[in-house]
């Protein structure tokens, strides 16, 4: 019967039923109360919706005076169950109910006639939700407009400014009203663009011409394009170096020390030299070679760097050695080489080709350090009438090994240099033994073919003044 769940079937006793009604039954459902009674051989039913208070009201209105008591199946005796406590309503006179079915005077509901029933006095508020009788037919919805009693009091904005402000102080807001259609002032700034920028390959791949030059060991050559020496001569120079190892540092006598201090260095003419070597003054020589003359190496004595006199690790001060070569305008070729070498050195080989020697070659501008192949890029080829200088500076480092720098000048101006212990190719480059400051170092000038040049060992004649 209905959609509610029947928990128990409370019976009704002592009821005043309609005429010819023999018995009745009240069945509480989830949100209603089902009233069933028997009349003759037929069964009739009626459903009451709402709260328990409303059930009683509907029963009184329908059947007049009734008396109800609810009993559970598990309860014993005929005493009625107590009625649940009712919340008091604020304000006015409110009826206080005692037991279920009794009012404040102690009499049961239904003792008074139907005409004398009235709701409690005071502020009466209707129950929330739709009326009990219309819950099953339609859904309750709020009214679309306020009650008729309040329509005449609709709110309207004030016609004047607030009381705290004078009417003369009121000014309209700047700009056109919001509803104006002729206002077409563009925004001060364009709207931000959220489009993805296009890929800029020029920014992703920088210009490689701005990169620094690669390390010099990448510029090594297997053979110089101006070379004139054969492989047999290179092998002969290596055999000579193996036969005559590097000498121990010299102990100069008084004459040698005096010559070194006066810069009066003597250039020794090598064996098989096809040319002339003339002394022009203290530390000043002139040399010339015939056309087609072979490779030769002119070495000076005493050495410009003497370990026992200039060792920077022992004296704790740097030592610089330097000299210049002037290529005369009348020179047939520019194939002169200038550098330094430890002693002894094969006189039939240019400096820089074998152990313990370095040089800059004028025919291709390459630098050579114990390199019998093609050298490495360094400067441009020499030109007639210009003066070139080569030097080495050995500085103390606080260790047993000094720092060695090589520098090169052109017409009295610094034109390049390198660190003796720069990064090199471990497979191709050979050691720099003999040039690290542990052996004496002499000036070495290489010649080939027809040349005319001057060698300047006197600092007073140098174009590069800083070397003094």
UniProtKB/TrEMBL annotation:
PANTHER family according to UniProt: RAN BINDING PROTEIN 9-RELATED (PTHR12864)
Cell compartment(s), UniProt: Membrane
Region (Disordered): 74-237
Bias type Pro residues, positions: 171-191
Source organism (scientific name): Tolypocladium ophioglossoides (strain CBS 100239) (Snaketongue truffleclub)
Chief localisation class: membrane
Protein name: SPRY domain-containing protein
GO cellular component: membrane
InterPro entries: B30.2/SPRY_sf, SPRY_Ssh4-like, Ubq-SigPath_Reg
Keywords from the UniProt entry: Membrane, Transmembrane, Transmembrane helix
UniProt keyword annotation of Manganese present: no
Bias-annotated ranges (Low complexity): 117-126
Superkingdom per UniProt: Eukaryota
Compositionally biased spans, kind Polar residues: 136-150
Keyword Ribosomal protein: no
């Amino acid at each position: 019967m209905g959609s509610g769940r029947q928990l128990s079937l409370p019976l009704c006793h002592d009821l005043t039923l309609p005429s010819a009604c023999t018995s009745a039954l009240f069945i509480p459902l989830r949100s209603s109360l089902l009233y069933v009674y028997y009349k003759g051989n037929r069964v009739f039913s009626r459903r009451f919706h709402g709260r328990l208070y409303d059930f009683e009201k509907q029963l009184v209105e329908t059947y007049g005076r009734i008396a109800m008591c609810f009993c559970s199946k598990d309860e014993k005796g005929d005493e009625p169950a107590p009625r649940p406590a009712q919340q008091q309503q604020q304000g006015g006179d409110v009826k206080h109910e005692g037991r279920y079915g009794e009012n404040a005077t102690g009499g049961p509901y239904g003792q008074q006639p139907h005409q004398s029933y009235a709701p409690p006095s005071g502020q009466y508020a209707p129950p929330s939700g739709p009326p009990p009788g219309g819950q099953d037919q339609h859904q309750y919805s709020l009214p679309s407009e306020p009650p008729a009693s309040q329509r005449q009091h609709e709110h309207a904005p004030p016609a004047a400014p607030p009381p705290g402000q004078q009417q003369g102080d009121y000014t309209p807001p700047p700009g056109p009203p919001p509803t104006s259609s002729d206002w077409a002032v563009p925004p001060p700034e364009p709207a931000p663009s959220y489009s993805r920028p296009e890929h800029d390959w020029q920014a992703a791949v920088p210009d490689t011409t701005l990169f620094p030059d690669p390390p010099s060991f990448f510029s090594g050559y297997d053979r110089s394009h101006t070379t004139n020496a054969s492989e047999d001569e290179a092998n002969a120079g290596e055999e000579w170096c193996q036969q005559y190892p590097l000498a121990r540092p010299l102990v100069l006598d008084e004459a040698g020390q005096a010559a070194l201090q006066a810069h009066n260095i003597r250039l020794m003419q090598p064996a098989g030299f096809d040319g002339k070597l003339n002394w022009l003054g203290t530390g000043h020589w002139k040399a010339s070679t015939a056309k087609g003359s072979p490779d030769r190496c002119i070495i000076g004595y005493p050495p410009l760097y003497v370990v026992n006199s200039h060792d920077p690790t022992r004296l704790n001060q740097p030592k610089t050695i330097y000299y210049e070569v002037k290529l005369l305008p009348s020179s047939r070729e520019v194939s002169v080489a200038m550098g330094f070498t430890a002693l002894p050195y094969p006189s039939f080989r240019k400096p820089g080709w074998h152990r313990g020697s370095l040089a800059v070659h004028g025919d291709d501008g390459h630098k050579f350090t114990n390199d019998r192949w093609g050298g490495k890029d360094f400067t441009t080829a020499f030109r007639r009438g210009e003066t070139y200088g080569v030097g080495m500076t050995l500085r103390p480092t606080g260790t047993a090994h000094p720092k060695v720098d090589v520098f090169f000048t052109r017409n009295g101006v610094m034109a390049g240099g390198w660190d003796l212990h720069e990064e090199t190719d471990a497979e191709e480059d050979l050691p720099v033994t003999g040039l690290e400051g542990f052996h004496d170092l002499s000036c070495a000038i290489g010649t080939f073919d027809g040349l005319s040049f001057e060698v300047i060992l006197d600092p007073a004649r140098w174009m590069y003044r800083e070397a003094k």
